[in-house]
């Protein structure tokens, strides 16, 4: 079945460093790739997304890249801050047979002050 | 109104109880979703409604029964649950335009404990 693999499962960085999280998807019909941040006890919140017709998108300190041929997409956070500490989920969505979204297993990011 | 709301926030029920979870949005979204999230795991899709019709059922046991009474409301009826069903139940909504996938906005969730 459809699958999204996400690495690493845990990432610890020093404040000010960059963090990179990578995901791979299996469903060729996937055409929308959101990234969610989930703080403890809170709902997942969208931080950035990218569509399959775009290779890169940036929003201030956050950027996402997509390699559709290789079915890889990555999240890049620059100048990390302690408030970036959270669990980050990548996801792959398609609209064939309904609006289906498959989430990666998550990356727990720790930013040390 | 740009939020998805869910009630109750917390629910404790016995295995013989019948209860319902409620979700509401007033953003004009036509796709609504139920997810189950266990601790330290990603959200796991259960059901998708598109224009008030069930479009995806991810082989969820029949003790979970979804209902979409109108375009703003989504319910999840619970009956004869098992302790392993204890989890955070998240509702989400998206625009739901035909042929286009869009951002899903999540509610705060209902934390369910089955005794």
Textual characterization of the structure:
- The complex is a heterodimer of chains A (113) and B (115).
- Chain A has 113 residues and is an all-beta fold.
- Chain A is 0% helix and 58% strand.
- Chain A has strands at residues 4-7, 10-14, 19-25, 32-38, 45-51, 56-59, 62-67, 72-77, 86-94, 100-103, 107-112.
- In chain A, strand 9 and strand 10 form a beta hairpin.
- Chain A is globular.
- In chain A, 37% of the residues are buried.
- Helix content of chain B is 0%, strand content 56%.
- Chain B has strands spanning 4-7, 10-13, 18-25, 31-37, 44-50, 53-57, 64-70, 73-79, 87-94, 105-106, 110-114.
List its traits:
heterodimer, A: 113 residues, mainly beta, five-stranded antiparallel β-sheet, 11 strands, B: 115 residues, seven-stranded mixed β-sheet, four-stranded antiparallel β-sheet
Quick structural gist:
The complex is a heterodimer of chains A (113) and B (115). With 113 residues, chain A is mainly beta. Helix content of chain A is 0%, strand content 58%.
The residue-averaged pLDDT of chain B reads 93
Strand/helix succession of chain B: EEEEEEEEEEE
**Which parts of chain B are unreliable, with pLDDT below 50 for 5 consecutive residues or more?**
none
* Helix vs. strand class of chain A: mainly beta
Find the structural class of chain B using helix and strand composition: mainly beta
Distance between the termini of chain A: 41 Å
Strand content of chain B: over 45%
């Amino acid at each position: 079945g459809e699958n999204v693999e996400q690495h690493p499962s845990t990432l610890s960085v020093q404040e000010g460093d960059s963090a990179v999280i990578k995901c791979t998807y299996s469903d060729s019909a996937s055409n929308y790739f959101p990234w969610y941040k989930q703080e403890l006890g809170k709902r997942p919140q969208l931080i950035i997304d990218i569509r399959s017709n775009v290779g890169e998108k940036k929003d201030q300190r956050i950027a996402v890249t997509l390699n559709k041929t290789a079915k890889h997409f990555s999240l890049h956070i620059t100048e990390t801050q302690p408030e970036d500490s959270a669990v980050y989920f990548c996801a792959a969505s398609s609209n064939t047979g309904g609006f289906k979204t498959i989430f990666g297993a998550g990356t727990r990011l720790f930013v040390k002050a | 109104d740009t939020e998805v709301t869910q009630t109750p926030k917390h629910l404790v029920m016995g295995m013989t109880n019948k209860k319902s979870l409620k979700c509401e949005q007033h953003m004009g979204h036509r796709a609504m979703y139920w997810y189950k999230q266990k601790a330290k795991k990603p959200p796991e899709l259960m059901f998708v409604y598109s224009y008030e019709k069930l479009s995806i059922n991810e082989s969820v046991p029949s003790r979970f029964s979804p209902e979409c009474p109108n375009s703003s409301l989504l319910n999840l009826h619970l009956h004869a649950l098992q302790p392993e069903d204890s989890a955070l139940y998240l509702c989400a909504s998206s625009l739901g335009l035909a042929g286009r996938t869009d951002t899903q906005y999540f509610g705060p969730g209902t934390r369910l404990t089955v005794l």
